[in-house]
Specification:
The chain is an all-alpha fold. The protein contains 19 helices and two strands. It is about 75% helix and about 0% strand. A hairpin with an 8-residue loop joins β1 (about 430-435) and β2 (about 445-450). The longest helix has about 30 residues, at about 45-75.
Length: about 475
């Protein structure tokens, strides 16, 4: 645990004598007020949520319109992958610097600037499309500019949530943010599909640009006296290294970030897969693409609301959801009919959202508040910034071997990553998975891992050396005893 600013309010790891089951299944958390919608009791958060639902609807409209426009201009799934890659490339290259900015400056002011800039990119693309002058390179440039703004906007917006609601309702607010985003996803793709079919993509871009007026107004109407601002970090050398070291030393931070990195890079390339399935497998149009996105959003919304009811961030839930996510993607890739494929998107959306919320809230609660911006920038960098690496590769596989092979490959990578990280997490905290099929017994449970005589002797020697140096016994164990399974 860092001793930086705000460390006193950060959750401390459990001690070695704590109960092993609790030690490995949930993060310590502040006491919650209770209720699925407890965060909405906070006026500032209500304003924020209202503004975001309008903006998120516009964002989803633009995503659908952008993917379909690129496919219409080029006829290539790889071109859709390039567009997606350009939008997320800045996060991969510059994401950590966005976290440094988030920790240095007041987050509300940063959000006002980033939201205004994102609105302008939508209006620029609308002008090009409605005037009939749009070319694919225009879409590429707009996607890249949007990605540059996202470098700052994402970690700032993630870290600003706790400043609105405080530690007690952080997990609930993160879940409701996801529910907000997925609610907009139910409406946005459907509206975009109708607009594209009726009047073209340009109107979807225009509405998205105008939608950013809502979050800007919400930020201006907030009562700043009711915020819980974190102490801003002064300028100084080594701030990036400090954030990376904080993550690297804590398994409850590094392994969930590794997992979402693999899944974000290879398992979340739905714009590529869904456009390819609609175009090449089912031979349908933009309204069908909107329907598939809506079904996935319905599952994601259900997952978000279920997450809002939970009182803890269980990393064994994170790993389990990731395993199921990979299996469902493989099943969808092999689906024999349109409706079987479409219905599988609902649980895929639910599992994907569960992965996101559990990792996001767990990492925020385990981070030193003074370093939260940098930690969240690393989280978002690997989750979103991995897309420029994965999207062109997945797009090429999809073009070369077909949509089914591309989708199956993404599911297989997600499944293997979940299994590997699950094993690493259990070893990091000294537990193992026990399966007991007897009636009346808990069938799957984590139990302390049996240690060999050599391991015990080594730890005893280490404790003796620590005592001789004036340290406390078990100090190194405490560093990894924070719950991570």
């Amino acid at each position: 645990m860092s001793s930086g600013h705000g460390a006193d309010s950060a959750p401390a790891p459990n001690r070695p004598h704590d109960d092993d089951t609790n030690r490995t299944t949930s993060l310590p958390r502040p006491r919650r007020k209770g209720g699925m919608f407890s965060s909405l009791r906070v006026r500032n958060y209500r304003l924020f949520a209202a503004g975001q639902v309008v903006s998120n609807t516009g964002t989803w409209m633009q995503r659908i319109a952008q993917d379909w426009l690129v496919l219409s201009l080029t006829g290539s799934s790889a071109a859709v992958g390039i567009t997606t890659a350009l939008q997320f490339l800045p996060m991969l290259l510059l994401g950590l610097y966005g976290g440094v900015i988030a920790d240095r400056y007041p987050k509300r002011q940063l959000l006002l600037m980033s939201q205004a800039a994102m609105g302008l990119t939508g209006l620029a693309l609308a002008a090009l499309t409605l005037s009939g002058h749009v070319q694919v390179w225009h879409v590429y440039v707009t996607a890249l500019l949007l990605g540059l703004v996202t470098v700052v906007d994402n970690p700032v917006r993630q870290a600003f949530v706790v400043e609105m609601v405080g530690q007690a309702d952080l997990r609930n607010a993160v879940s409701l943010n996801s529910a907000n985003f997925q609610s907009a996803r139910l409406v946005g793709p459907a509206v975009a599909g109708v607009l594209i079919s009726a009047v073209g993509s340009g109107w979807a871009f225009l509405l998205n640009g105008l939608s950013f007026a809502a979050p800007i107004a919400a930020l201006l109407l907030m009562r700043t006296a009711e915020l819980h601002p974190a102490v801003t970090a002064p300028r100084g050398k080594g701030q990036l290294r400090e954030g990376l070291r904080h993550v690297a030393e804590r398994p409850e931070l590094i392994w969930p970030i590794v997992l979402v990195g693999f899944i974000g890079t290879f398992g979340f390339n739905f714009p590529i897969w869904l456009t390819a399935f609609v175009n090449d497998v089912f031979h349908a149009d933009a309204s069908t693409y909107g329907l598939l996105n809506t079904l996935m959003a319905a599952g994601s919304l259900a997952g978000a609301l279920l997450a809002a009811r939970r009182g803890s961030s269980r990393f064994r839930l994170l790993v389990g959801a990731a395993l199921l996510f990979g299996l469902l993607e493989i099943a969808a890739a092999l689906a024999p009919s349109f409706w079987f494929f479409a219905l599988l998107l609902v649980p895929i959306g639910m599992c994907g959202l569960t992965i996101n919320v559990t990792a996001n809230s767990g990492i925020q609660l385990a981070s030193d508040p003074a370093l939260r911006g940098r930690v969240m920038s690393l989280f978002m960098m690997v989750f979103m910034g991995g897309t420029p690496l994965g999207a062109p590769l997945v797009g090429w596989i999809t073009d070369a071997y077909g949509p089914r092979v591309g989708f199956l490959a993404g599911g297989a990578v997600s499944l293997l990553a979940a299994a590997g990280v699950g094993l690493a997490l259990t070893r990091a905290v000294g537990v193992r998975l026990r399966v007991d099929l007897r009636r009346g017994h808990q069938h799957v449970v984590f139990v302390p891992r049996r240690r060999t005589t050599e391991e015990s002797a080594g730890e005893s020697a280490g404790d003796s050396a620590g005592n001789a140096a004036g340290g406390s016994p078990g100090g190194s164990a405490e560093r990894v005893a924070a719950p991570a399974a």
